[in-house]
Specification:
about 400 residues, Aspartate Aminotransferase, domain 1, Aspartate Aminotransferase, domain 2, four-stranded antiparallel sheet, about 40% helix, about 15% strand, globular
Length: about 400
């Protein structure tokens, strides 16, 4: 499918902003949704809406079957061994919080250590800070190199007998760095350390096989991968999930309740308290079908072409500086003008119909390391074109002239 044909599946791309065609380059924050995702959500509310698992009537059974089939589809999408290892959450943030709380309650004690990296999103920093504070443990941070890559020698040296878990991003949302997840996991496992991978920025762009990676936990969000907001996935190996206490309590996560005692439900339901977000789970399933149909090879080929083209075009603009040069980079390009604030650049780009993200991108510690207040971030998706990159480059050159 050609990119122009593909774009017709995304109605919002027809929108005009400030009387100009929308150039949407904020995909790392959230992707736009194809019609098949929008229609799947709409169809659920038109034809299937009912609470699941507990009903004895037709609609409840219909919705329950659709919901559990979606779980099976997600299991297949990331090649988990069992559907019971797929926990539906509100997104990557809740998935990480779930592990930080429940894993911490079971395994973390005074003097233990949790390892993260300097390029983590706040969602993979703050939950571990809270867990460490609760259990009097210590947070260790793996530094990055001048090129924006994880310092693997430092990672090896930080791991030790007190390390209880390593939580590392698969792809940096601020720099686009693709971390060597398989190598990270192998090194950690030699130290008997389980690994959580934040995959929010990976699943839109590359095939994730959790069994091949051998990760212990993997987290991702629907809205970053052409699916709906407010839904995501925690994958966890059964050996960990079976040992961890529930994160939230209430309906669905119980087997038996009396005033004296509660018996928890089996996996995955023990981690899915309350009424689930059925419609958006089905929308997420539709998004995975959309990605599968496009094929990750074609997605990667298109996005690599866009990234390299953007580097070439933007690299010609006076006083524009890229913030990293990793050897393996996803479709994220962070840059600044040394003498123009990123926010000013972003506001002017919006006036020209170009949507980018500015600021610290929820990576304030990383921005402090780079000694910048923030960046301008252009991030690409399957529907972006080289013509849109040209519009971005021309707009940036104009901003350079205006504010020089």
């Amino acid at each position: 499918m050609g990119v122009q044909e593909l774009r017709r599946s995304f109605p919002i791309l027809e929108k005009r902003v400030n009387n100009r065609p929308l150039v949407y380059l904020d995909n790392a924050a959230t992707t736009q949704k194809p019609l098949e995702v929008i229609e799947r959500i709409s169809n659920y509310y038109r034809e299937e809406n009912s609470n699941i698992h507990r009903g004895a009537h037709y609609l409840s059974n219909l919705a329950t079957e659709a919901y559990e089939n979606a779980r099976k589809s997600i299991r297949s999408f990331i090649n988990a061994e069992n559907s019971s290892e797929i926990i539906f959450t509100r997104g990557t943030t809740e998935s990480i919080n779930l592990v930080a709380h429940s894993f911490g309650e079971k395994y973390l004690k005074k003097g233990d250590e949790i390892v993260i990296s300097a390029m983590e999103h706040h969602s993979n920093i703050v939950p571990w800070q809270i867990a460490c504070s609760r259990h009097e443990a210590r947070l260790r941070v793996v530094p990055i190199t001048a090129g924006g890559e994880l310092d693997m020698d430092a990672f090896r040296s930080i791991l030790g007998e007190k390390t209880r878990l390593a939580a590392i991003t698969h792809v940096s949302n601020a720099l686009g760095t693709i971390n060597p997840a398989r190598e990270i996991i192998e090194i950690a496992h030699k130290n008997d350390t389980p690994v959580l991978i934040d995959g929010a920025q990976a699943t839109p762009h590359m095939k994730v096989d959790v069994r091949e990676l051998d990760c212990d936990f993997y987290c991702f969000s629907g809205h970053k991968m052409y699916g709906p907001m407010g839904v995501g996935v925690l994958y966890g190996k059964e050996k960990w999930l079976n040992e961890m206490p529930p994160y939230q309590s209430g309906g669905e996560m119980i087997k038996d309740v009396s005033f004296e005692k509660t018996t928890y439900n089996e996996l995955p339901f023990r981690f899915e308290a309350g009424t689930p977000n059925v419609a958006d789970v089905l929308g997420l399933e539709a998004a995975t079908s959309f990605i599968t149909r496009l094929g990750y090879d074609d997605i990667a080929s298109h996005e690599v072409e866009l990234l390299e083209y953007a580097k070439e075009k933007l690299g010609q603009i006076e006083k524009l500086r890229f913030l990293a040069s990793p050897r393996r980079q996803s479709s994220v390009l962070s840059f600044i003008f040394d003498d123009i604030h990123p926010y000013d650049t972003g506001v002017l780009l919006d006036k020209m119909g170009v949507a980018v993200r500015t600021g610290h991108h929820c990576t304030q510690p990383l921005m402090d390391i780079l000694e910048v207040p923030g960046t301008v971030r252009a991030s690409f998706g399957v529907y972006n074109t080289t013509e849109e990159v040209d519009i971005l480059a021309d707009a940036l050159a104009r901003i350079r002239e205006m504010l020089a």
